[in-house]
Amino acid sequence: MATLRDIKRRIASVRSTQQITKAMKMVAAAKLRKAQNRLVSTRPYAHEMLEVLRHVTLRLHKRAHPLLESRRVHKVLYVLVTADRGLCGGFNSNLIRRCQSELEQNPAKSRMLMPVGRKGYDFFRRRNATIPAHFIDLFNNLEFHHAKAIAAKLMQMYTDKQVDQVLVIYNEFKSAVQQKIVVEQLLPIPPLEPENPKRYPVGFLFEPHPAKLLDQLCPLNLNTQIWRILLESNASECGARMTAMESASENAEDMIKELVLFYNKTRQAAITNELNEIVAGANALRG
Q1: pLDDT tens for each residue of 75-91
Q2: Which of 210, 214, 255, 275 is least enclosed by beta carbons within 10 angstroms?
Q3: Which domains does the chain carry?
């Protein structure tokens, strides 16, 4: 049976852990505000950029640019965006589980993985997955050049026909307590399929030439979409960590209450036992 000293040490240990989880919650909340502001300012631009590009490509041939060209899918590359650190609830494990499911269900002959974030990379590296490239330790100081580096690698692999399709798996930010796992096609850039063809009865006039225009728009769109995805994942991670640390702090508080109650009961039992021994000794001396 645990002694009073052991229980007091346990209470002190849980209180120390609770202080850490409360501090981590405050840090995550501060980071969440910053990440959310960056996401809110980027998301509309990214959505409109993709919409403009899809409207432009609607009037052009699919082979007008290498990033628009659709091919028979034999080789698929999954870009898995996880966090670099843990202690954020099921954020990473849910993404990894979804990625495993997608890899198993995809009938492509060759399935490759490009992890963005240390947790996804460490998990699949130990399982001998085909990883042509990886990007880790981005989210402590996330900048636009990280998105450009990822986009450049994807464009190089797609134009060199190392892959026929690029899909990204990430957490879309909804709120601090809600994130949604999304599987989205990055390459080839998905064309716009109008519900009513008569809605676009006229053609477009291009200045400069469509090829030059797409040479600018397609890479810019890919950079922007990956930047948005990184911001979505970063905000989701901060929200998940804040929620997880809040839950951990509440659990620690409940554990402290239970331990204090157990300590008091044990102390009371010890005092009662000592009193019984004193009374028994006194009775024995009286004869």
Answers
A1: 999 999 999 998 998 99
A2: 275
A3: 23-195+204-243 (3.40.1380.10)
